[in-house]
Amino acid sequence: MEPVYLFDLASRHANWASVRQSVLTSNVANANTANYQRMDIEPFSEVLDETSLTLASTAPGHLNINGTEVGAVDDGTVDTWEAKETGGPVKLESELIEADQVNRGFSLDTAVTRAFHRMLLASVRSGA
Amino acid sequence: MIIDPLRAAGAIAASGLDAQSVRLKVVAENMANAQSTGATPGADPYQRKTVIFASEFDRLLGAPTVSVKDVAGDESAFPLDYDPGNPAADKNGYVKMPNVNPLIEMADMREASRSYEADLQMVKQARTMTSQMLDLLRNT
């Protein structure tokens, strides 16, 4: 069975969402600043592309669950995102809509985490 | 990332709130002095002020905050009013009036107020996200 790393995925997306929220807040704060260029971070799909969600063996002592040889140490975690200028002035309305989407995504993350956690707890309790 | 991004969002929005309230204060000064002429003949009246915003990159927050760089005077010409009895009237009887246009000030005030609301909205959202995260710890 292929394990699903929902906790990892949810927490990574939540992290991405909070970074994006702070970048969007910068845009809103600088909405009336002359010559300010709107900023944004890379979309989450790109973060996902360069992130491996399977367990990586980061130390020689780690057990290999797939039965293949122990690969090179590659912890593909991305913790920081670079805010890049996307060009163009800030539109308050679109910033607020984007922020609302970020907020919704974050709600989904916490809900998924809670549901998954409840599921784990249920299996632990039923065994006791 | 040195600081939690959601707290950073709060601090950035606070810088925006601060800048917009300075702007609102300057609009109030302009409106209050819309009729302030000089005291001596031919003297310059009150000069309209405008705020200049500048964004500066905050290393600790990792994002640009906004600040009021300068409060500069509006260099446009003063309109002349014919009022020979005024102590500020020149020898032809004209008084220089402040270059404050109430309509422009009202528009500026509205815009400042809207931007302030948008900043508040961002603070609210960041707070919602934080409390959702904390709720994960609460009911298990």
The poorly predicted ranges of chain A are 67-76
Beta-strand percentage range of chain B: 15-25%
Mean model confidence by pLDDT of chain A: 78
> Average pLDDT value of chain B?
89
Q: Can you count the helices of chain A? A: 3
Number of domains of chain B: 1
Overall geometry of chain B comes to: elongated
Helix proportion range of chain B? 40-55%
Order of helices and strands of chain A: HEHEH
Widest sheet: strand ordering of chain B: 1-2
CA radius of gyration of chain B: 22 Å
Strand count, sense and closure of the main sheet of chain B? 2 strands, antiparallel
What is the alpha-carbon Rg of chain A in Å? 19 Å
**Termini separation of chain B (Å)?**
29 Å
Which class of secondary structure composition applies to the elements of chain B?
Answer: alpha+beta
- How many β strands of chain B by DSSP? 4
Biggest β-sheet of chain A, characterized?
2 strands, antiparallel
Overview of this protein structure:
The complex is a heterodimer of chains A (128) and B (140). With 128 residues, chain A is mainly alpha-helical. Chain A has helices at 6-29, 44-49, 92-127; strands spanning 39-40, 84-85. Chain A has one domain (4-125). Chain A is 52% helix and 3% strand. In chain A, helix 1 (6-29) packs antiparallel against helix 3. Chain B has one domain (6-138). In chain B, a hairpin with a 4-residue loop joins strand 1 (49-58) and strand 2 (63-73). In chain B, helix 1 packs antiparallel against helix 2.
